[in-house]
Specification:
heterodimer, A: 315 residues, mainly alpha, MetI-like fold, two-stranded antiparallel sheet, 15 helices, B: 531 residues, alpha/beta, D-Maltodextrin-Binding Protein, domain 2, 4-stranded mixed beta sheet, 21 helices, 44% helix, disordered N terminus, Bact_solute-bd_prot1 (chain B), membrane (chain B), cell membrane (chain B), SBP (chain B)
Chain lengths: 315, 531
């Protein structure tokens, strides 16, 4: 204020500039309002409930009137065997998923990019996208029909050819493979979108110049296509690493079953079980909070490493 | 119809099936306005109030009915609602997510129905302990004389906790629970007799496997099994020693605390490893695959809920349609080596579900009145069976379903079992009458088999011990242990025989660690107190 008083003219000019700026760009801010509202209501609002983790939550007296218990619930959770098993499984499934599912869309996108025939490209893109729109419940049904040991179609064929039936769903290691490839099938096609978008920005002259130099197709992919989607790859990798500790609920819950519980029980299904099924909301919130904190550490960590090593980051 | 309930309906009406109701309730809401929101507790002031009642939705409403607007809801509205100036609004809860949905509903003071119910006693105890339920003792004296008479002190006791009546237990018509079914035509082909002991059952299954009387090859399933209680409970009861004569711990997850449980798992392991039971039973918690396998004629033997396969157009009817030469007989196969080789099997307690009125409900008086109305006159029978002369005829005091009634009339009571919440099954009189009434509801050609099934299911039964105080470990660990029980069953069954010992020990240790030992201790103490 004192500054404004001292130089009223300058202050006036600044205001004027700002209002002109707002006048010009208010529509963009208006567009932003809705997403911000979304985040406030659905992402920040619920944080109020995080205090349940420190309270002996009683369903009927509500959050405010429940008693504070400090870190007691944390102690209880960290003493639970199931917690460590589900934590391990979450990391394991996510890590394997990263190895198997992360490169799949990159390879697919490059292959699509190399396709010359326009209609075939569009056709295969559509076919590849479709699984993304199928809910996991339905995929689960399909998986059971296909991979069942006694009634599954694939084992029917295998047995018809004189092979032993493979317990795709009930032996934990076979299940792991089923789980991972179902994931690839469901998400690889959709994952190509970002890479293909990045590829549209590649200067065609680069390819022509490479042609003149006599570069083979693989050379061009290696030296032109891949470097041009590198930032996208890094960004997605960071986002994926940040999600290492959080795992979707549907996929492990639906594809998983009691026989492979040792592998298929993850944090999200654990939270569902103790929270919604057993009604121990405090413990469930503790696990959720733990997940959020570890997730934050992961995303900051991977961003830091990425900035140090490649110079690209997202923050 | 209040603003709150309207919002509540909209929130819950995510399912497209409810669109019709939504329109209706919005219209109704417009008509009666939201003035009544201020209506105080009680109904004597002459204002129209809304009573919200939970109802199970099994997704099987025949057109044009919906789960919230059908012949029975209209009947309740006309007979009870209108004379008492009450709008009854039914709040659907999907049958398969009964408790999860209820947990969510209970947490919201405005959405929760005035009448809710649950089968799981530990859920009831938890709600009661947390102070979420209305003590209905006084209300019953004042407004529920018919209800009290119908239930009787013995049933009411199930809903009492430290002298307070926190739940109104439904009554169970029949305590018969499980029996076995075997393919008589397979037995005939092999020249074998129906098995009457566990050893004979094993021999029979082996013969089914080796001689393949159905000529099914790799599809042959000597014993159909699912990861469902009707599959594993009869088997486990065939080995465990009941803790107190013909009574034992009531909860399913308390089975591993019994002497003999390991024997049952060992037997299951043997069956699995010799390829005698459904290979993918661990995937089949809803018995869908089992149902298919049975109807396609691939299953030699299985245990089921009494009557489960005998309904009109049910599993048995489809089997006979698919395989006209097949024949199914009821068998009592398991004999228990730890209980004098008797045909030990579980029976239900005499109570049905726990009907509760949440503490936040402002319509507790109306809620009790509704239940009292249901218990009076002929209402319960009408709600479960329909109209006399149209849906059924009374023959010797038993309602016999009219099979020639039109589909429209039959559809009236398609959800009768779920609307008549005071009764599990048809409560007509004593157990025997109820059984006859139940049998009379089955298609003629299946009634003989039904009678045999009930007789078997009533042989050497073991019922639940009722403690007069809640077992706190049940409320605390019940869900986790129930889950673990399934893991124990699956892992024990699927381990290779030489690993069985190690796997079983590992899983049981886990079971004891996550609450099993505390539960055991508490149960044993309660048992001693009881003497």
């Amino acid at each position: 204020m004192t500054k404004a008083k001292a130089t009223p003219l300058k202050r006036y000019g600044e205001l004027n500039k700002r209002s002109a700026y707002l006048k010009r760009y208010w529509q963009l801010y208006a567009l932003l309002a809705l997403p911000i509202l979304y985040f406030v209501i659905f992402r920040y609002g619920p944080m109020y409930g995080v205090q349940i983790a420190f309270k002996d939550f009683n369903l009927f007296t509500g959050i405010n009137d429940s008693e504070w218990i400090g870190l007691e619930a944390f102690r209880e959770v960290f003493a639970m065997n199931d917690f460590y098993i589900t934590l391990r499984n979450t990391f394991m499934l996510n890590f394997l998923d990263l190895i198997v599912s992360f490169p799949a869309p990159i390879i697919l996108a490059i292959m699509l990019y190399e396709v010359r025939s326009g209609w075939f490209k569009r056709f295969s893109q559509t076919v590849l996208y479709i699984p993304h729109f199928i809910s996991w419940v339905i995929i689960g049904g399909i998986v059971y029909q296909l991979f069942g040991t006694q009634s599954g179609m694939i084992n029917g064929v295998l047995q018809g050819l004189g092979f032993e039936a493979v317990p795709f769903l009930t032996e934990k290691n076979s299940w792991l493979i089923t789980y991972l490839f179902t994931g690839v099938w469901q998400s690889a096609g959709w994952g190509t979108i970002l890479y293909l978008a990045a590829l549209t920005g590649v200067n065609k002259e680069l390819f022509e110049a490479a042609d003149v130099d006599g570069a083979s197709r693989l050379r061009k992919i290696w030296h032109i296509t891949l470097p041009s989607i590198k930032p996208t790859i890094v960004t997605l990798l960071i986002l994926n690493l940040g999600k290492m500790v959080s795992i979707g609920f549907d996929r492990p819950y639906i594809i998983g079953n009691t026989a492979v519980r040792e592998y298929s029980d993850v944090l999200s299904t654990f939270v569902y079980r103790i929270g919604l099924e057993a009604g121990q909301y405090t413990l469930a919130t503790v696990v959720g909070l733990f997940q959020a904190v570890v997730g934050l550490v992961f995303i900051l960590g991977s961003n830091y490493i990425s900035k140090k090593t490649t110079g690209d980051g997202i923050l | 119809m209040t603003g709150n309930t309207r919002r509540g309906v909209m929130k819950r009406a995510a399912g497209a099936a409810l669109a019709v109701l939504m329109g209706a309730s919005l219209l109704a809401g417009c008509g009666s306005g939201s003035k009544e929101e201020a209506a105080a507790n009680g109904s004597g002031d002459g204002k129209r109030v809304t009573l919200k009642v939970e109802v199970f939705d099994r997704g099987n409403s025949p057109s044009p009915h919906t789960i919230t607007n059908n012949w029975l809801t209209q009947y309740a509205q006309k007979e009870f609602g209108d004379p008492n100036n009450i709008d009854i609004q039914f709040v659907p809860v999907q049958r398969s997510e009964e408790t999860t949905k209820l947990n969510v509903l209970m947490a919201s003071a405005s959405d929760v129905p005035d009448i809710v119910f649950v089968y799981d006693s530990s859920v009831f105890y938890r709600y009661a302990q947390q102070g979420g339920l209305t003590d209905v003792g006084e209300l019953l004296n004042e407004h529920g004389q018919n209800l009290k008479k119908y239930l009787g002190d013995e049933t009411l006791k199930f809903g009492q906790l430290e002298g307070k009546q926190f739940a109104i237990p439904g009554k169970r018509a029949i305590t018969a629970r499980y029996n076995g079914y075997i393919r008589q035509d397979w037995l005939d082909k092999l020249g074998m007799k129906a098995p009457t002991t566990t050893d004979e059952l094993y021999e029979t299954l082996k013969a089914f496997k080796e001689k393949d009387p159905g000529g099914l090859g790799s599809k042959n399933i000597p014993m159909g099994m699912a990861l469902a209680p009707s599959g594993y409970e009869p088997l486990i009861y065939g080995f465990i020693k009941p803790v107190k004569g013909d009574l034992t711990y009531s909860q399913r997850y308390e089975l591993p605390l019994h002497e003999g449980f390991k024997d049952s798992m060992q037997f299951l392991n043997k069956l699995y490893n010799e390829g005698l039971i459904s290979k993918d039973f661990s995937l089949d918690e809803q018995e869908e695959q089992l149902g298919k396998d049975f109807q396609n004629g691939n299953v030699g033997f299985m245990t089921e809920d009494v009557g489960q396969i005998l309904y009109a157009d049910g599993a048995l009817d489809s089997l006979y349609k698919n395989m006209p030469d097949s024949k199914v007989a009821a068998v009592d196969a398991y004999t228990n080596p730890n209980a004098d080789n008797k045909h030990i099997k579980s029976r239900y307690g005499s109570n049905g579900m726990y009907i509760m009125i949440p503490k936040s409900s402002k319509r507790s008086v109306e809620a009790v009145k509704y239940l009292d109305w249901m218990a009076s006159d002929n209402n319960l029978l009408t709600m479960s069976t329909g109209v006399e002369g149209e849906n059924y005829d009374m023959v010797d005091g038993i309602p016999v379903i009219k099979e020639d009634a039109s589909q429209e009339i039959k559809d009236r009571v398609y959800n009768g079992g779920d609307m008549a919440i005071l009764a599990n099954g048809k409560v007509i009189g004593d157990q025997e009458t109820n059984e006859r009434a139940w049998t009379a509801g089955f298609p003629k050609q299946n009634q003989e088999l039904m009678e045999q099934s009930i007789e078997i299911a009533n042989t050497d039964t073991v019922g639940p011990i009722i403690f007069d105080r809640p077992i706190e470990a049940e409320a605390k660990y019940g869900t986790a242990l129930n889950d673990k029980l399934k893991v124990i069953i699956v892992q024990s069954a699927m381990a290779t025989p030489d690993q069985f010992e190690a796997v079983y020990e590992r899983e049981m240790n886990d079971f004891m660690k996550i609450g099993g030992s505390e539960l055991k201790k508490e149960l044993e103490e309660a048992l001693q107190e009881q003497g």
